[in-house]
Amino acid sequence: MLPTLITLALALSSPPALAAAPVCDISYGWYLQNTGRPEQELAVALGCLDADARDGSDPSGFNAHFLLISALSLGMREGPTVVRLYRDWAQAEPDSDLARVGLALALSDANGDGGPWCDEAAAALQPLPSTPDIRARAIRVRSAIRRVCPGDPDEGLDDLREMAPTVAAARRPVLKRDLADHDVTAQDAAAVDRYLGDWPLPAWIAAALWDPDAAGEGLEDARATVLRVVDQAEKSDAPDLLDDAARALDSAGQTDRAKALRARRDELDPDAASAGMVRFNGVSWMPRQLRTDPQVWRDLARDYAKRPAPLALLSLKHLASQVPEDGPLRAEFEGDVADHLWWSLQRKASLKHSRLAWLANPTAERANLYGYDASLAGADLEPALAAVDQALANGPSWDPRGDNWVDGYQAWRDMAADDMSDLLDTRAQLLVRLDRWEEARAALRTAVLLGSPSAILHLHLGLIEAHLGDDEAALLHLTRGLALGGGNEARLRGRAKAQARNLLRTQRFSPRGLDAYVAARWPPEEAEDQPDNTPVPADATSGWRVGQSFPNLALTAQNGATSMLSDIEGLRVVDLWATWCGPCVKSLPGLSSLAADYTKRGVTVLAVSLDDKADTAFDFKDGPRSPAYQLLWAGQHAFTDAKINGIPAAFLIDEKGEIVAYTRGYSKGDHRLEDALDTLLDKQEGAL
Fold first, then answer.
1. Edge to edge, what strands does the sheet with 571-577 contain?
2. Rounded Cα–Cα distance for residues 32 and 39 (Å)
C-alpha cells in the first residue's frame, strides 16, 4: 500500500518544488507548512516514507504520515482523496495499526465539523494499538476528533502520562494540557526542559509561558529554558530554527529581536517571505506576504473573540494603520469592524466598512456581504447592486487547489450553483429596495433553477410574486419555503405566514388551516432537515446531541463557591452565553422570565458564562437587575466540552443528565425553549 500512497502523492505535487526540498527532515517539513509551501512539505513526507531514507528515529513512521496527510489535506485541498487512500489501505490491511490511525487522522483533517464521519473515525481507532508509540499517536488523534465529535477529549490522558517518560509521542499532549492550566510547577518546568531536548521549539510552549495568566513556582525556570533554546537557535543558519525562535520571541514580547531573526531567515530562505498561505494562531489561514507583526494579529484575535463590541472597536482603530491598505487581509479587517459596528447598532457605519471590505478584495463573497448589508440598511443600494452584478458577470471558476474544499468537479458545481443563487437572492433584495420588482422576480426565478433552492429563497420569491399579483405562484413558493423550515429569519417567516394565510382564504380551502395545507402539499419526506435553531424533541434523530449525556461542567458561583453540574438535580436549562455576545445579552431578559415561570414547575434555569474570567460575568451590568435564573461561570473550556461553535446555546437536560432539546441563536420573541419545556413537562405530568 505504501508505494500506492507515494505514487499518488507524487502525482498531486509539482516537480520543481520537490527538487528544492530536503530528503527527510520532519521538523523542516512542519516549517514548510508554517510558511505555506505544501508541495515541498509533501516532498519531505515522501522522503521520510521511503524506507531507504529512514534513520530509525521514527519506528512507527507516523510522523511522516502525519506530515503527508497535513500537506495533502490542509495545504493542497485534497482531503477527500486522502480519506479514500487511507480507507482503501485500512480495508486491504485491517490489522495495520498505522493504516487505521492514518484513516482517523485523514477523516479529521478533511472535516471541520461533526457528522457521519465521526463514527467511521471512532471505529478505525478501536481497539487502540498496543505498540506504545503508535498507541500514543492514536490517543492524540482520538482527542482531536472528539473536540468536534461525541466523546471525552481527555480520555487517555492518564495513559499518556504513564508513557511520557519513555515515549516521545506522549509528551506533547501532556505538557500542553499542564501548561494550559497556567500554574507552571517545578515538574512542568522540568518537562519543558525534557521536551525541548527532543524537539525544536514549538510556538505553543512560549505562548503558554508568556500568557498574562501564567504563574507558578516553575514559571521563571521554564521561561529561562525557552530563552536558552532561543539563544542556541539564534546562532544557527537553519531557517526553521530561526523561525521557531522568532515566534517564541513574539510571545515573550521581544518583537525587535524577533524581526531581526525573521530578516535573517528570509535571507537564508527567500521563498519563506513570499509563500502562499500561513496558519495563524492555530485557527485560520492568511496570505503570508500580507502578514504583519504577529503581535498585532494576536491582539486582533483576542479583541474579536473576547471583548464587547465598543471596546473591540477602539482596539481595532488602533490596529488600522498596521494593516495593508488593500487585499484579503484588509478585507478581513474591515469585515471585522463592520461586524462590531453592526452589533453596536451602528448600521450605517457598518455598511461603510462592509463596502471598504469589498473594495479591498472584490470577491463574490465580499460582494454578497456588501449587498446583503446594503439591502438591510436601505442605503448604498446602487453601488452595492453594481458590486453584485460584477460578481455575477465574473462567475465562479474551477480550481481544484483553490480555496474551495470540495471532492471533485461535480461537488464544486453544486457549491458554485448555491453561491450564484445567494448572489441572485441578494440582487433581488436590492432591486426590491429600488422598487424594481419585475427584475427582482426574474433574478429569483433564475436562482430557483440553479440548484436546490433554500427556504429563504422560496419565501423571498413568494412575497415578490404576491406583490406582483401572481397569487398561484406566490402560494406555491411561500408554502414550499415554510415546509423547508424558513431558515433562521423569524421576521421573514412571520411575513410569509401572514401572506400565505391571506392567499389561502381566496385561492384554496383547508379546513385545518395553513399548517395542515403545507403538510399536505409538501409531505415531510420532501422537506429539508430542521434548521439548527429549532428545538429538537427527545425522540427526534436530527442531531447527535439529543439523547447524549451533557458534559458535567465545573461551575463557579458569584460567592466563589464551586460545584459540578451533576450536583444540581432535576430538570435543568443550561444557557451558555458570554458578555461579549450581542444576541446572548439580548436573550437574558427572556431567560429570566422563563426561569420565573418554570421554576414553580421544578425546572432549574442556569445562565452559564463562557467569559475568560469569572469577574467579567459577575460584574456585567447590562443583564436583568434581579434575574430569576442562577448566574454561574464555566469559562471558555465549556465551548469544547459542550462541542459548540457559537452562542447563545441553550440545552434542556433531564434528571439523568441527558440532552432532551437544544437551541442555538436568538431573535426577538424567541419561544423555542418554552415550547420544548411545555412538550416535556406536559408529557411527564400526563404520565403521573
1. 562-564, 554-556, 630-633, 603-609, 571-577, 649-653, 659-664
2. 9
> What is the reported pLDDT for 165?
86
State residue 441's pLDDT score: 92
Answer whether 495's CB lies under 8 Å from 463's CB.
yes
What's the whole-model pTM score? 0.45
Report the share of the chain in percent with pLDDT over 90.
13
SS3 380: coil
Q: Give dist(CA 330, CA 337) in Å, integer.
A: 11
Q: pLDDT tens digit string along 543-569?
A: 346 778 888 888 999 888 888 898 898
Q: Which of 71, 72, 69 is nearest to 105 (CA)?
A: 69
Q: How many CA atoms lie within 13 A of 484 on its CB side?
A: 19
Task: Summarize the confidence of residues 461-467 as an average pLDDT.
Answer: 90
Backbone angles phi, psi at 662, to 5 degrees: -150, 150
Strands 571-577 and 603-609: parallel
Residue 90 has pLDDT above 50, yes or no: yes
| Residue 310: cis peptide before it, omega within 30 degrees of 0 | no
Q: Backbone phi, then psi, for 510, in 5-degree steps? A: -140, 105
Pick the residue with more confidence: 681 or 7? 681
> Taking the mean position of all CA atoms in its chain, how far away is CA 320?
25
The candidate with the shortest Cα–Cα distance to 236, out of 199, 265, 279, 269, is 265
Phi, psi dihedrals of residue 281, rounded to the nearest 5°:
60, 20
Q: Which residues contact 546 (CB under 8 A, 6 or more apart)?
A: 536, 537, 538, 540, 659, 660, 661, 662
